[in-house]
Write a structure and sequence with these properties.
Blueprint lengths: L8 E5 L4 H11 L3 E6 L14 E3 L5 E5 H4 L6 E4 L5 H12 L3 E4 L13 H7 L4 E6 L14 H7 L24 H24 L3 E6 H7 L2 H10 L16 E5 L4 E5 L3 H11 L13 H6 L1 H12 L4 H10 L4 E3 L3 H6 L1 H5 L3 E6 L3 E6 L23 H9 L3 H9 L4
Parallel strand pairs: 1-2, 1-6, 2-5, 6-7, 7-8
Antiparallel strand pairs: 3-4, 9-10, 10-11, 12-13
């Protein structure tokens, strides 16, 4: 079957998460993504274990599970950019690429002749994406960018975590590196748009992506709410600032989520709880009233919910058409019938592990389905193949490069 980015070559000089997440999406679309790594060391995340991938005998391999998360569908070569010949090879590869992705410090690749201005002078159709913590300019541009720091600076932690007046109150980071991941998603979108522009004009361009920019943008309604009102939102834990009840409740044997999105659903929820009088109580009958009186309503709901188990509440609430759901751990997630039906786990052959289980792409296309039959590559696994196919180096030439430590 055709794939959206068949024939597109991506040279990936990024590492860790934001850049690799972006290029993994391009690989999902069918691009040939070549990951350029340091000899012997490779991407930092190759060493971020445990957990490690197991071989068929159950022993740890040298592949960290973290690395597997963002590198499916790619090829890996090693190249020493500290050596002039390594730099020259990198420039040759860039001349054959459609897309160049990097997350080096601002200006760092210029010393290797791998900056956008140098490469675009000879290859004006190149789409070049730089990913940094704070962008290519501005007072923070020289700072290293880490997801945790950006979640703090960019406001996410100010609205994440339990309220300060509650037990355990205080700022919290999100459980995954969401600034990195969202930057990867935005970057892949930007690259696709730039490729579409090139298709129409023949012109490439430089894309300047910053974790902080993305973090601010993804605050969405919270950000626009502040811009409209001038009032900074605060943390509400597992509750919602503007909708009640819309939060986690504790049953007799665990927790679950209820999201009452309108007054009709609240009336049904009252029937489930056995409190029909709340439907007409002026404190609770409308959402604005419920928000105003949340400190009265929520404890009353909590007292009733605590008397019966999660399964009882989920069955009863769903029967009345009110949105609700369990809070699953990852074992329960991957056993969930809907997740299984949607085929969100891939089993892909792997040279060391025999087979690895990966999370599948969530994108479902009718005409150009995502096909992932290539596991995240071992370090330098495709060096010979890529140097031969992209820039014509024969076996003897690659052996010489390997002997001199350039690859």
């Amino acid at each position: 079957m055709p794939r959206i980015l068949d024939g597109i070559r991506v040279l990936d000089f990024s590492r860790v998460l934001a850049g690799p997440w972006a290029t993994q999406m391009l690989a999902d679309f069918g691009a040939e993504v070549v990951k350029v790594e340091r000899p012997s060391l490779g991407d930092d995340t190759r060493h971020w274990g445990p957990p490690w991938v197991k071989d068929p005998q159950g022993r740890d391999t040298a592949e960290a599970a973290y690395y597997l998360a963002a590198n499916r569908g790619k090829k890996s070569i090693t190249l020493d950019l500290k050596k002039p010949e390594g730099q020259a090879i990198a420039r040759e590869l860039a001349a054959k690429a459609d897309v160049f992705v990097e997350n080096y410090k601002v200006g760092d690749l210029a010393r290797f002749g791998l900056d956008y201005a140098t490469l675009a002078a000879k290859h004006p159709g190149l789409v070049y994406c730089s990913i940094t913590g704070f962008g290519q300019d501005g007072p923070y541009s020289d700072r290293p960018g880490y997801d945790f720091i950006v979640q703090g600076i960019g406001g996410l932690m100010s609205i994440t975590g339990e309220r300060d007046d509650q037990p355990g109150g205080g700022p919290q980071k999100v459980g995954v590196a969401v600034s990195d991941l969202m930057t990867g998603v935005f970057s892949s979108n930007a690259i696709m748009a730039a490729l579409f522009h090139r298709e129409r004009t023949g012109q490439g361009q430089h894309i300047d992506m910053a974790l902080l920019d993305v973090q601010v943008a993804m605050l969405a309604n919270m950000a626009t709410g502040y811009l409209a009102s001038g009032v900074a939102p605060v943390r509400f834990g597992n509750a919602h600032q503007s909708i009640v009840p819309y939060q986690v409740f504790k049953a007799s044997d665990g927790h679950f989520v209820v999201t009452v999105g309108n007054d009709r659903q609240f009336a049904h929820f009252c029937d489930v709880l056995g409190t029909p009088e709340w439907k007409t109580d002026p404190r609770f009958a409308t959402n604005p009233a419920r928000v105003t009186h949340r400190d009265v309503l929520v404890p009353e709901i909590a007292k009733r919910v605590a008397l019966k188990p999660v399964a009882h509440w989920l069955e009863a609430i769903e029967r009345f058409g009110v949105p609700c759901g369990p809070i699953n751990d990852l074992g329960q997630v991957f056993a969930d019938p809907q997740v299984r039906h949607r085929q969100m786990v891939l089993n892909v052959p792997h040279a060391d592990a025999g087979e690895v289980r990966l999370v599948a792409s969530p994108m479902k296309f009718s005409a150009t389905p995502v096909v992932c039959d290539r596991a995240p590559p071992r370090l330098g696994e495709h060096t010979d193949e890529v140097l031969r196919d992209w820039i014509g180096r024969d076996t003897a030439a690659v052996q010489r490069l390997r002997g001199s430590g350039i690859v």
